[in-house]
Structure formats: C-alpha cells, structure tokens
Amino acid sequence: MSDTDHGFGNRGNRDASVVNPKGRGTVDGTRRSGAVQPGSGAAPFLAATALRGGYGKADILHGCTITVDRGQIAVIVGPNGAGKSTAMKAIFGMLDLREGAVQLDGNDISALNPQDRVRAGMGFVPQVANVFPSMTVEENLQMGAYIREDDFRQTMDQVYTLFPAVAQKRKQAAGELSGGQRQQVAVGRALMTQPKLLMLDEPTAGVSPIVMDELFDRIIEIARSGISILMVEQNARQALEIADIGYVLVQGTNRYTDTGAALLANPEVRRTFLGG
Ligand SMILES: Nc1ncnc2c1ncn2[C@@H]1O[C@H](COP(=O)(O)OP(=O)(O)OP(=O)(O)O)[C@@H](O)[C@H]1O
Ligand SMILES: [Mg+2]
C-alpha cells in the first residue's frame, strides 16, 4: 500500500487541500492566531453560527450553523460535495471565513488558528490522510500529543484500553493496519490532547459494518466520558441512531436540524437522504 492510498477509495478526494500538491484554495494551516474574545453567555458548548466561506472566491458554506452541547453526539449528514468537510475545517480554523463565528465553551475562538484551537480543547480527525502510515502506532499517538509538555503516558494507556486491537500493534507501522484499526489510531491520536470536543470526519469510511458498529460503540463511550462529539457520517442511518442532534447539510446550508430519532422518522429525510 502506498502512502497516498488510505483505503478510503475515492471519497473526499474533491478536497484539493489534500490531493492537490499545489494547494489550490485558501486552506491555510500556517495562519497566525488572533485573540480569544468573550462569547455570548447562553451559547451551547460548541456554537458555529452562520458560517460563510469557501476556497478562493466561491463560497461553499452559505450560512450554515452547527451546535453541540456538552457530552452530546452531533452528526452531520448530506450528499457528496455538500460542504460537510468544509464545515468541519471551518470550525477547526483551517479556512478563513467571510462571515460567522465559532464559540467554544463560552469563548469566541473565531480568530484562533487550528493549533490554538487544539489548545482550546478541539480534537480533529480529518477525512483523509489522518495517520502517518510509515510511523508506528505508538509514534502516531506521540505525534498526537505534540502540544503537551506534561506526561501523556496515562492518556496513551487510556487510548490503548479503548482500542485493545491497536494496543497489540503499537510497534507496527500504521499503514500496515486494517482500515478500521487505522481509523482507531486516528481517533486515538486526536484523543492524546485530551480534547473537550472531538471532531470526526467520516470515521467509518471504508470499514465493514461490524467494524463500523464497533467504532460507533467506542464513540458513544468517548461521549459518555464527557467529551462532546461532532461527526460527519456517510453511514447516515446508523450515525443518526446514536445522534443526540443531527444536521442534514445541502449545498452549504442547513436543510434539516432535529434529534437523530426525529430525522430518522421524517419521511422526507428518509426518502431523500436515507434511501427510503
Ligand atoms: N481545498 C479545496 N479547494 C477548492 N475546492 C474545494 C476544496 N475542498 C473541497 N472543495 C470543493 O468544495 C465543495 C464541498 O466539498 P466538501 O469536501 O466540503 O464536501 P463533503 O460534503 O465533505 O463531500 P464528501 O461527502 O464527498 O466528503 C466541493 O464542491 C469540493 O469540490
Ligand atoms: Mg467530506
């Protein structure tokens, strides 16, 4: 397997920031941070409101809003190219927004770059290229802890307890693992900074239904430990089953927002987005 083959097939490959070495678009991971501002008092734990922006001149997000409460699982679903990954990147600070704001835990963090958002409590597992394939599992987790100056051994043990299969492969190159185990490494890597909000872009991409169920169970376990989850999912039906709140995103706007159960029961949502 080559370093560019992540076992995800072709999904997410329209993200030119990942596949285009010339870096078309305006995703910028080197941006300097601005100041944290006080947020509006009553906001949910994560409140990303009226996001507008994209890559270059064309907007992809047209005012979409995503909120997640403490300990909640929020799920974003929608057709390919709807802007789900773009919304995640915007919330993580990889995209310069023309309008909108991101509040986390009562603070307006809109001016922070991704690295400082990690310090503020965000963990992000991108849709593609989310592990270093030539590094071992253990090295991947160590990389995940890059902002920590304290002893992260205990966090690593917690990750290994959560994902026993990858614990057994800690000395193996991540690229040699199965798709499901690589996704576990990616999630584990994001957990190494002890995030308060864990953002997952298609964590079950390219894995079997059994591995998907297993991964969802682990995600529920993470949420129960008090970490808020914001997850994009292609396995919409299964993901909405575990969602406290669900967002159907279409062309960069909110088409439906409701509890996971209500979206699953909505005939129009079922017909149009869940295959009947
Ligand atoms: N880095 C980029 N530069 C320019 N355009 C981009 C970039 N990344 C994505 N796009 C475009 O933005 C739109 C939304 O893409 P995005 O990846 O956010 O969709 P998505 O909902 O995550 O789709 P998928 O289900 O395929 O993952 C698409 O039209 C895509 O071609
Ligand atoms: Mg995507």
Molecular structure report:
The chain is of the alpha/beta class and 276 residues long. Helices cover 33% and strands 22% of the residues. The chain has eleven helices and eleven strands. The chain has helices spanning 16-19, 84-92, 114-120, 137-144, 153-162, 164-167, 179-191, 209-224, 236-241, 260-265, 267-273, and strands at residues 37-38, 46-55, 58-68, 73-77, 99-104, 107-108, 122-125, 197-201, 228-232, 245-250, 253-258. Bound molecules: adenosine-5'-triphosphate and magnesium ion. Residues 12, 84-85, 127, 201 line the site of magnesium ion. The site of adenosine-5'-triphosphate has 20 residues, from helix 1 and helix 2.
Q: What labels would you give this structure?
A:
276 residues, alpha/beta, Rossmann fold, 11 strands, globular, disordered N terminus, binds adenosine-5'-triphosphate, binds magnesium ion
Largest sheet, spatial ordering of strands? 7-8-9-4-10-11
Query: What number of domains?
Result: 1
**Alpha-carbon distance between the termini?**
37 Å
Question: Could you please say which CATH topology applies here?
Answer: Rossmann fold
Largest beta-sheet details? 6 strands, mixed
Which CATH first-tier class would you pick?
Answer: Alpha Beta
The CATH homologous superfamily is called P-loop containing nucleotide triphosphate hydrolases
Which structural class do you get from the secondary structure elements?
Answer: alpha/beta
The helix count comes to 11
Structure summary, number of beta strands: 11
Which kinds of small molecule does this entry bind, naming each only once?
adenosine-5'-triphosphate, magnesium ion
Low-confidence stretches: 1-10, 16-25
What order do the helices and strands follow?
Answer: HEEEEHEEHEHHHHEHEHEEHH
* Arithmetic mean pLDDT: 89
Strand content: 15-25%
